[in-house]
Amino acid sequence: MEKNTCANLHPQSMCPAFGGLRVLTRIEGARVCLVADQGCLYGLTFVSHFYAARRSIMSPELMNVQISGGTMIDDVRATIEQIADDPAVTFIPVVSTCVAETAGIAEELLPEKAGNAQVQLVRLPAFQIKSHPEAKDVAVSTLLGRFADFGAPKREKSLLVVGEIFPVDAMAIGAVLQRIGVESVIALPGTELEDYVEAGKVEACAILHPFYERTASLLEKKGILTISGNPVGAGATAGWIEQIGEVLELDMETVRQVAAEEKEKAATVIEKFANLSGKVIVAGYEGNELPVVRLLLEAGLDVPYASTSIARTALGEEDHQLLSMLGTEIRYRKFLEEDMQAVMKYEPDLVIGTTSLDSFAKERGIPAIYYTNNISSRPVFFAAGAGTVLGMVAGLLGRKDVFRKMKEYFTPTLP
Ligand code: SF4
C-alpha cells in the first residue's frame, strides 16, 4: 500500500479535546471552563452539543491580545470565579487545549476550589493527545489522580469497569458480574464525581477499551489489578469472565459455569449467522474497532483491513496478534487515504467506516455505514451484542445489489 506523504494527508478526526469534553460534560454538577481560541471554542461547543452534552461551557476570551498581553491566566481565574458564582456547580474542569497549552498554563496558579466547586486542570492539546479516544483516557486518569481515594481500605470483591459503553451493555455486564459473585461495580467514565473517589477503593479493574493506557498504568501503580479485553464474541466472553473471577479470587466453579453458559449463548447466536459471507472493511476512529473485527471474523466473515485513530497499545495486543494471524491488515493512527486505498485494493462488500470513507465507498456502489453511529451506539457485548451487530451486518450485506443498481442508475451513459 502506498506510503502517505504530506501532500495526500487529509484532516483525519475531530479535535481530540472533544473526547475529554464528552467525559467531563457528563458529570453531574460540572461546568467546563474551556481555555481555547475562539475558532476551537466554536467547533468544540458545536460538536459537544451535537452529541447532546446539554451543558453550558464557559470560556475566557483567548485571542492574540490576551496571549501577547499576558493576561490569559488571570482571565482563566476570573472565568472560574464567574462559574463558581452558581452554587449548583460542584465541579469545574478547566480544559486546556492547543493554543492555551502552547502559551502555557501553570496549574499552581489555578485554585483547587472555587465556591462550591472543585477545580481541576485537564490538559488536552492535540500536539500531545493525538485522538479523541485517548483524550478520554487523559480525562479519566486526571480525575482519578486527583480524586480517587486510593488510601482507603479496599472493598472486597469490587470491580471498576472502564470504558464508555452503550447502556444495555452496562446492564448486561452488571448482571453477569453479579452472577459470578462480584459485590460492587463502578463504571467509568460516569456521571458522578463521587464514582471517581470510590474507584480508589476497588480491588481490580477491567479495562474494556485498549486506549485507557494512562488509566491502567495509574491504577496498577496504586496496587489495583487490571485486566484487559472485553466480552465480545463467544471465546473472548468466557475468557473475560474467568479473568475477573481469578483477579477477584471468586468461587471459580461458579465463575466457570457462568463463563461456559455465556460462551454457549454467544456461540449459538453466532451460529445463526453461519451462512453469512462477505468481505468487510472496518475503519473507525473510536479506538474500539478491533473487538468488532474479532466478532465478524468469528462469524466467518472476511475482514482484510481494519483501521483506527489510536496507537497500538499493550492493552490491545492480544486482539492485534489474533487478527493479524487471521489475515487482517491493521492500521493505527490511520489516514483517510490509507482507508481509501484499502477500499480500492480489497473491493469489500461492506464498509463500516468514517463519514468520508463511507461517501467514497458509496460512490463505488459499496454499502457503507458510519462506525460511530452504528457500532458505538448499540450493544456489542455477550450474546445480545453479537446478535445485534451481526444482524445489522447481515442486513447490509443483503443490500449490496441495491447499491449496485443505484450506482448504475446515477451513472450517466454516453449516447
Ligand atoms: S487547534 Fe487544537 S484545540 Fe483547536 S480545534 Fe484544532 S486540535 Fe482542537
CATH class term of the largest domain: Alpha Beta
CATH superfamily of the largest domain: Nitrogenase molybdenum iron protein domain
| Percent strand | 5-15%
CATH topology of the largest domain, by name, is: Rossmann fold
Averaging pLDDT over every residue, what do you get? 92
Ligands, ions, cofactors: iron/sulfur cluster
Question: How many β strands by DSSP?
Answer: 14
Question: Which structural class best describes the helix and strand composition?
Answer: alpha/beta
Distance between the termini: 37 Å
Low-confidence runs of at least 5 consecutive residues? none
Rg, nearest Å: 23 Å
Number of domains: 3
Helicity range: 40-55%
Strand order of the largest sheet: 2-1-3-5-4
Shape: flat
Tell me which CATH architecture of the largest domain applies here. 3-Layer(aba) Sandwich
Number of helices: 18
Main beta-sheet strand count, sense and barrel state: 5 strands, mixed
Question: Would you give an account of this structure?
Answer:
- There is one protein chain.
- The protein is α/β, with parallel strands linked by helices and 415 residues long.
- The protein has 3 domains: 17-129, 3-Layer(aba) Sandwich (Rossmann fold), CATH 3.40.50; 158-268, Rossmann fold (3-Layer(aba) Sandwich), CATH 3.40.50.1980; 273-407, Rossmann fold, CATH 3.40.50.
- It contains 18 helices and 14 strands.
- Helix 6 (132-147) packs parallel to helix 9 and helix 10 runs antiparallel to helix 11.
- It is flat.
- Iron/sulfur cluster is lined by residues 15, 17, 36, 40, 43, 97-98, 126.
